[in-house]
Structure prediction request, 411 residues.
Amino acid sequence: MRHFDGKCLSTRRALQPHFRKLKLDSPFQPRLDALNLQQAWYDWAGYKAPSALWDEELEYFAIRSQAAVFDISPMVKYRIEGEDAEAFLDRLTLRDVTKLKPGRVHYTAWCDDDGFVLDDGTLFRLSPTRFRLCCQERHLPWLLDSAPGFEVEIEEETETVAGLALQGPTSWSVLNAAGFAGSEKLKPFDIASFPHADGEVTISRTGFTGDLGYELFVDAKNALPLWDRLFEAGKLFGVRAIGYHALNTARIEAGLIVANADFVTAEHAIRQDRVRMPDEIGLGFMVDLKKPGYFNGRHAIENARKKGGPAHVLVGLEIEGNVPAEHAIVYHRKTREVGLVSAAIWSPLAKRNIAIVSLQRDYGKDGTADLWVEIYAMRELQYVRLMKRAKVVPRPFVKLDRRAATPPGAF
Prediction:
């Protein structure tokens, strides 16, 4: 086992004096600072990230009607490389990594030995022996502790690799105008590298909006030229920078989940009954029991399934009215508490009041009747209690054909 821990630490300190700076700067910070008219920031993994830049609602419509750029540099990124990288990741994650071919990405998750989810994320196979793991939480100690016996190098590259999500119906047109010839061949979850500045940019057809979209990764030193290249090319295609609030609306419409928002990761849970297995948060499809050998949590997940399956399910909910039910309690027949809403919006595209909710298993079937949501709405400086009917519905709430169209539509 080899890793770059000492080297990385000195490099990171040279790049960002952590002990002097309350929030880290993204490689795109000069552009974000110039555009952030609202001065609305939040903490993303220690970085100063925009909640909204100019107008939350219009930023959302930039995703759905033009091209939206969201800075994903704070997303935690690990380079995992070596002769045993495939075997190492196959041992750690739920899906069969041997089926992930070079030039492809898959969405995956990983558990502790008790079968509880530590995090979810995307695994990029950049070459036969080189991977990039992107996720919400930092896992370097866990990755290193899991590495003995494997010939593998592990390095956190969050600060050295900048990232942008380019999402929306005109996103490919922006790439094409920017000179990324061949990007039209990318199918969903494909990856390819393209020349940029004095290096290259890796472009994947992935995203967190349920729309046509791409994610671009580049060496941090070439980040600003990439931003400028996209925005110059996108002048005729309505390219706009957005913050997290707009992205969050789109991801809820797409039925996508966020760690420590829609479920509590195993290392963050204080109470034992708050942790969740993959089957309890809609990630059971990832669990590949056909792949040979052991992977983290395998026996625990198998035993739980033999005992009757998950105690909870994560489902979509449609609620009457137009008041979002953020963090509302769900009842059966207005009396029995059966679940909790983790994310809720009035969907601008579906024109429905929707939510992602964790329910007791028996109440999580599509079309379950007599469910009610308790919402507290502000009315003239006073909270009013509203009991609204709800029903379990399939996710995603919004499904767009253009997300998977290959080649993508041109504008």
